Amino acid sequence: MNVLMPQAVLAAGVLGALGLGLLRRPPASAVRALVLAAPLTALWLMRGVEPAILAPLIGADVKGLCWQLVIVAGALPLAFMSSGDDVEAALFLGSVLGMSLLAVSGNLLMLFVGLEFMSLPAYLLVARAGQGDGARRLEAALKYFFAGALAGAVFLLGLALYYAETRRLGPALLPLGAQGQAGVALMTAAALFKIGAVPLHWWLPDVYEASAPEVAGFLSTSMKAAAVLFLMRVVSLAPVQASAAVLPWLGALTALVGAFLALRQERLQRLLAYSSLAHAGLLVLGVGAWRALGFDPAAASSLLFYLGAYALLSNGAFAFIRASGVETRAGLRGYAAREPGLAAAFAVLLFALGGMPPTGGFVAKLLIFWQALRVPYAVAAALAGVSALVSLGYYLGLVRDMYFDAPSGAAPRCGCAAARLTVLVCAIGALMLGAAPFLLAGLTGRAWR
Predict the structure, then answer these.
(1) In the chain, where are the structural domains located?
(2) Which residues contact 350 (CB under 8 A, 6 or more apart)?
(3) pTM, to two decimals
(4) pLDDT band at residue 371 using 50, 70 and 90 as cut-offs
(5) How far apart (Å, rounded) are the C-alpha atoms in residues 165 and 218?
(6) How far is Cα 204 from Cα 147, in angstroms, rounded to an integer?
């Protein structure tokens, strides 16, 4: 099957959403059906795609194809909770299309095209989607735009330096000199911007907090998975690279900063934003271990498992905010007495995000720490382990708020059945991955054989 068939389906979805927008009153049901059918069809078509090189721009390796699955699957909750707005549908599908193009990029030029294609619709999606204070969303979108523009400019500058020395848009054949190393370092910084690693994280909390919950879940999962693949593509450009040695320490620092800042948050969406920052640190640590192990397939499988599990956990946690209507920790007090089923599902997701057994979050964190210790990056892994312990302070604190505190005020009401179902499905998935991690590990293991 053609490598670009999934991308063609997503592009058709974008055109379909724009076509519906030409109608005077686009039917919301038709928009919802389209925005859900396009990624589902793309996932179905990925089953038959084989690794191939379509020179010079497209090169679908096994890693990119596996990442496509996680990216598109992580976008399904937002598609399922779609508002039926045709513009939001086109922006969402356009961003997913950009991520898919990034996954099958054959050189640095196509990598940049995919990066911009996935980012530009996301800026507008943050500004447009959701209810509430539009000025606040616009401010967050502008901050996101300027951060993304800076990342793009840094990447192009690095690309220019790298190309000036190597005359290549792909991996270097010879060890790099100072100019080439500087170019790779700048491109690595651009990838870290997209992940939101410290100290390049200043845009992330405000963007996640101002977005609609389901959009924040999309940004924290599919967008993060694409950014991790972007980072892996960049750090594999040269056989010897000085900037790659910084990744484990930068990952540990990011995890610590995210965990400690999350402790002080009262608004749930901002708390989950800093939680996402802590998880990004563990992913950067995992990429550093993968690079140091000589691009070991087992280390790549660990990253893929982590991203697959996190797609369930983060989407489910943000979907809970949409389903419950609770925005602050104060509103969460005594929530289990009012909504026992939804509270139980959220508690499972919190345990998994904290890395407690027997959930998928525990297995995912264990795999990352194991790969870091193989290098060995014992000190960086220990610092990241401290961040995991600190994170239990706010994850278990939320569980305590729901089950052991007295209710405060009237319970908010939300009739979003799709969000409730998303929370339930994600919680079941978190338990399944913890009880039987081979469900995903077996797939990734076979993919690299």
Answers:
(1) 243-449
(2) 317, 395, 396, 398, 399
(3) 0.94
(4) very high
(5) 38
(6) 9
